[in-house]
């Protein structure tokens, strides 16, 4: 069985960009869970949040996790909150290596700032919200097989690190 590479981590840590690099580098199909949810629902994530709330979104996310975690040899880029449900992580870990991308709040803010595509950051003080969410989610992210700090690294450099780990060159 060819294992999946599952990219987890907070928004703005580079999951999508690194996923594209890994897919190209290793010749593996890339599955963007958020894009799959948008396709299935026929609307953007921010619209799903605003219309139906975070709980509804998390349920759709879990459906997609269960669907795509059955595949083999794919790169799965998850949304930042996928780690919050143990059933998601159990399904993803069954055939996958869990990689957490980590960045400092300042890096995340600079990468996500000015975007209205991030419903959880549509608040008065986004940096404070980032810190609060990171503090809460850190124990969940730390359950990954490998954590990679993405501050001051290119998606290519990060993908190289993951590819080396994936190939057994830990």
Q: Can you tell me about this structure?
A:
Helices cover 52% and strands 15% of the residues. The chain is of the alpha/beta class. It has a single domain (4-166), classed as 3-Layer(aba) Sandwich (Rossmann fold), CATH 3.40.50.300. Strands 2-3-1-4-5 form a 5-stranded parallel β-sheet, with helices on both faces. The radius of gyration is 15 Å and the shape is globular. It starts with a strand and ends with a helix. The model has no long low-confidence stretch (mean pLDDT 91).
What's the story with the biggest beta sheet? 5 strands, parallel
CATH superfamily: P-loop containing nucleotide triphosphate hydrolases
Calculate Rg over CA atoms.
15 Å
Order of helices and strands: EHEHHHEHEHHEH
* Share of residues in strands: 5-15%
How many domains, in number, for the residues?
1
In CATH terms, what is the architecture? Answer: 3-Layer(aba) Sandwich
Number-wise, the strands total 5
Q: Strand arrangement, largest sheet?
A: 2-3-1-4-5
Under the CATH scheme, which class?
Alpha Beta
Instruction: Briefly note the CATH topology name.
Output: Rossmann fold
Assembly state of the chains shown: single chain
Q: How much helix is in the residues? A: 40-55%
Q: How widely separated are the two ends? A: 20 Å
């Amino acid at each position: 069985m060819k294992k999946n590479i599952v990219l987890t981590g907070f928004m703005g840590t580079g999951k999508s960009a690194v996923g594209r690099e890994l897919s190209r580098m290793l010749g593996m199909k890339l599955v963007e869970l958020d894009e799959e949810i948008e396709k299935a629902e026929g609307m953007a994530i921010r619209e799903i949040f605003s219309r139906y709330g975070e709980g509804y979104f998390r349920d759709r996310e879990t459906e997609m996790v269960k669907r795509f975690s059955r595949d083999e040899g794919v790169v799965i880029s998850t949304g930042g909150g996928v780690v919050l449900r143990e059933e998601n992580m159990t399904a993803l870990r069954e055939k996958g290596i869990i990689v957490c991308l980590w960045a400092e709040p300042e890096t995340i803010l600079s990468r996500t700032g000015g975007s209205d595509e991030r419903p959880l950051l549509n608040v008065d003080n986004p940096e404070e919200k980032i810190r609060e969410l990171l503090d809460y989610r850190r124990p969940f992210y730390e359950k990954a097989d490998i954590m990679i700090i993405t501050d001051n690294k290119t998606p290519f450099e990060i993908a190289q690190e993951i590819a080396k780990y994936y190939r057994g060159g830990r």
